[in-house]
UniProtKB/TrEMBL annotation:
The SRP54-type proteins GTP-binding domain, residue ranges: 270-283
SUPFAM superfamilies: Domain of the SRP/SRP receptor G-proteins, P-loop containing nucleoside triphosphate hydrolases
Taxonomic path: Bacteria, Bacillati, Bacillota, Clostridia, Peptostreptococcales
Entry protein name: Signal recognition particle receptor FtsY
UniProt keyword annotation of RNA-binding present: no
Membrane topology (UniProt): Peripheral membrane protein
Length: 298
């Protein structure tokens, strides 16, 4: 049994699809209509659903599939292909590395930072955190708690100060101490999209100027339980800055699972991590084949 199915990640998605297959022993237009509806209900976007259905019809015709029992493996293959972005799915192992974590407040950004820090330390990489979300009350304190849990130092300034100044100090400290990975928290206020864009642009300019030799990751953290709202956030943040990967949080029960497929397909964004629980090691690197196979694990 795959990691994702063990954690209940695809319970809703699996239930919807299985119900359609059980209720329709033959492949006909009624089956296609119900399957299409089940995909949309499972938080897969309309555009991606149409893409999946078009591919499915092509496979059914090309391979002379006549029974719905044979549909599962075909769907699994189609979905695996949609979410597989090759090497782009892999989190950078280059050192030094600067990671900008972006996403709205409440989506699991700070928790994800702590978990990525723990993962990097487990791999033998040295880590430093920069608390550049200086506008949200207690943001730095929350990051400090994760720093203590993981044994990682946190660079922070007073609340309300320039976020880019924190990034600057983080870079100087990382360079002076030979740190492998600098992970930077950022503010996430989409209602002030113009200000957020300027902040991120300034942060990127500071990194470009002060640390041009560093590899870069800009990871967007999305709460999978918010479904189509998370898709909207992916669209908004994609317009604000270049994103190298997605971290999907809270994929451990109530999420339907379809958002992951939509984000990967409609925005061509690689998923790098999936949060499958509350524990410090419950952030797993994304495996497209395991992911797709987990949908239909019994």
């Amino acid at each position: 049994m795959g990691l994702f199915s063990q954690k209940g990640t695809f319970k809703k998605l699996t239930e919807h699809i299985t119900n359609v297959i059980v209720g329709n022993p033959n492949i006909d237009e009624n089956f296609y209509d119900e399957l299409e509806e089940s995909l949309i209900i499972s938080d897969i976007g309309v555009e991606t659903t149409e893409h999946i259905m078009e591919r499915l019809r092509e496979e059914v015709n090309a391979r002379y599939i006549t029974k719905t029992d044979d549909i599962k493996k075909t769907l699994e293959s189609i979905i695996a292909e949609l979410v597989d972005k090759g090497e782009r799915n892999r989190f950078s192992r280059e050192n030094p590395l600067v990671v900008l974590m972006i996403g709205i407040n409440g989506g699991g950004k700070t928790t994800s930072i702590g978990k990525i820090a723990a993962m990097c330390k487990k791999e033998g990489r040295s880590v430093l955190l920069a608390a550049a979300d200086t506008f949200r009350a207690a943001a730095a304190e929350q990051l400090e708690i994760w720093g203590q849990r993981t044994g990682v130092r946190v660079i922070r300034h007073q609340e309300g100060t320039d976020p880019s100044a924190v990034i600057y100090d983080g870079i100087q400290s990382a360079k002076a101490n030979g740190i492998d990975v600098l992970i930077c928290d950022t503010a996430g206020r989409l209602q002030n999209k113009g200000n957020l864009m300027k902040e991120l642009e300034k942060m990127n300019r500071v990194i470009d100027k002060e640390y041009p030799e560093a590899a870069r990751e800009t990871l967007l953290v999305l709460d999978a339980t918010t479904g189509k709202n998370a898709v909207s956030q992916a669209k908004e943040f994609s317009q604000i800055t270049d994103i190298t990967g997605i971290v999907l949080t809270k994929m451990d029960g109530t999420a339907r699972g379809g958002i992951s497929i939509t984000v990967a397909d409609e925005f061509d964004l690689p998923i790098k991590f999936i949060g499958v629980g509350e524990g410090i090691e419950d952030l797993k690197e994304f495996d497209p084949k395991e992911f797709a196979g987990g949908i239909f694990d019994e």
